[in-house]
Amino acid sequence: MKLKVLVCGLVVGMLVSSISASAATPKSASDCKATISLTAAKGIFSVIETTTPMNPITPKKIDGNYKCVDINGHYKTQRVSKSVAKGQISEIKYAPNHFKTYMGNMGYYLNGSFVGSVEKKY
Length: 122
Hints:
Oligomer: single chain
Helix content: 10-25%
């Protein structure tokens, strides 16, 4: 009788501990999304982590370029580079006077590993 109670208690304890552990596991890097938003005068380069509740914990880094063009076809390129240990990451670049946005590209890294790249033309 005592052995049955002990075994049942052990089984129930294992079930409860596995349920609580799986519920607490963060989604982290799988929930990250990289985007580039371009307007005529600026580019926004972001990697957003959409965990619920909102508690971004994944280290992130972006590395890329924001390219502008003037009426004569001359290009200017600005470097986009930023990193955070945890949290959301976003970098804004503005077109110089008499230039307008041409394109933006970036590679992004999560947990120190290259994940992918994004490119967008205006």
